Amino acid sequence: MGGQSEEIEYLKSLVSQLNVKISALEAQPKPPKSPARQLRTILMGPPGAGKGTQAPRIRDEFCVCHLATGDMLRDQIKAQTPLGMEAKKIIDAGGLVSDDIMVGMIKNQIENNAECKNGFVLDGFPRTIPQAQKLDGMLSSRGEKLDSVVQLLIDDQLLISRITGRLIHTPSGRTYHKLFSPPKKPGLDDVTGEPLTQRSDDNVETLRKRLTTFHSQTGPVAEYYKSKGLWHGIDAAQSPSVVWDNLRAVFVGKK
């Protein structure tokens, strides 16, 4: 009996020690996620296809930076730089900004933005084959290359329905939709109660011009990446969660 009691006490002591260790481990801050490998990808798609929804998820899941060239340009427009003013004229007219300066901006981000150390998801560039070639050249000079190019595919008419109802809270970047995701109070941000706005290029006529330009310019870019075996097409008319599952399958090599 004495030996059994000692064994029970020993086991209790061992369990107690294990519980202390488990509690200590659980209390430690969790290490940041780190990807199994670097990811350098391009997310293609017309305005309203869902790039703004999916790119941040790619950024967070794979610990890479999100380089949205549209945001870079809008920052220039807000600052009223010469490039920004020129870009605004083109965007308001329904065109797509094509500028060699973008490659330099992208290179600067890759080299100086700590979030880019594990790679990047490039959103909104390249839009022409010469731009794609310049991007390839810049990456090659760094001893790097793209892993994949993913294009979100969706019908133009569905896109127009999505975009013309889009409402934006400019200070925060929060977005709503008149039909699909309306604010609690019409025209007002849910958090601040401040007025929501529509971008000046979010009207049907301008959108049709933008889509025509997008298809004529970026169609050849898709073919360029198809020829390199990098291109993947994703049906963007599906729910965002299904689109994400398909995107993730590309990046982890299951698609």
TrEMBL record:
User: What are the BP-aspect GO terms?
Assistant: ADP biosynthetic process; AMP metabolic process; ATP metabolic process
Name a Pfam family for this protein.
Answer: ADK_lid
Question: What name has this protein been given in UniProt?
Answer: Adenylate kinase
Which family, according to the similarity comment?
A: Belongs to the adenylate kinase family. AK2 subfamily.
Q: Is-annotated flag, keyword Amino-acid biosynthesis?
A: no
Which amino acids does the record list as binding ATP? G48, A49, G50, K51, G52, T53, R166, T175, Y176, Q238
* Residues covered by region (LID): 165-202
